[in-house]
């Protein structure tokens, strides 16, 4: 049983996973070390929260840029 939440837009799962990995690298989460543990299994909750928070920040920033275009 997976605890992964479904995306709101069908078919966006793969792109969201890539986005999450990109943000994780930006904030210094070592994904290569954690891939053998299914990527996030051994990453501390604090670091996961940092990744999620930065993802939201980037999504809001992107949306705001689109609003002013």
Q: What can you tell me about this protein's structure?
A:
There is one protein chain. This protein is mainly alpha-helical and 69 residues long. It has one domain (13-68). Helix content is 61%, strand content 0%. It has three helices and no strands. Helix 1 (13-26) packs across helix 3. The longest helix is centred in the C-terminal third of the chain and has 24 residues, at 45-68. It is globular.
Average pLDDT = 84
Main sheet: strands, sense, barrel: none
Q: What order do the SSEs take from the amino end to the carboxyl end, as H and E?
A: HHH
**Domain count:** 1
- Specify Rg, calculated over alpha carbons: 13 Å
Distance between the termini: 42 Å
Alpha-beta content class: mainly alpha
Helix content: 55-70%
Pfam families: SASP
InterPro entries: SASP_alpha/beta-type, SASP_alpha/beta-type_CS, SASP_DNA-binding, SASP_sf_alpha/beta
Keywords: DNA-binding, Sporulation
Family: Belongs to the alpha/beta-type SASP family.
From the structure above, extract its key features.
SASP_DNA-binding; 69 residues; SASP_alpha/beta-type; 3 helices; 0% strand; single chain
List the helices and strands and how they pair.
Layout: H1 13-26, H2 31-34, H3 45-68
Helix pairs in contact: 1-3
């Amino acid at each position: 049983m997976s605890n992964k939440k479904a995306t709101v837009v069908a078919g966006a799962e793969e792109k969201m996973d890539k986005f999450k990995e990109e943000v994780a690298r930006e904030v210094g989460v070592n994904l290569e070390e954690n891939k053998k543990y299914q990527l996030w299994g051994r990453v501390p909750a604090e670091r996961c929260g940092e990744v999620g928070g930065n993802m939201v920040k980037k999504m809001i920033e992107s949306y705001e840029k689109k609003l002013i275009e």
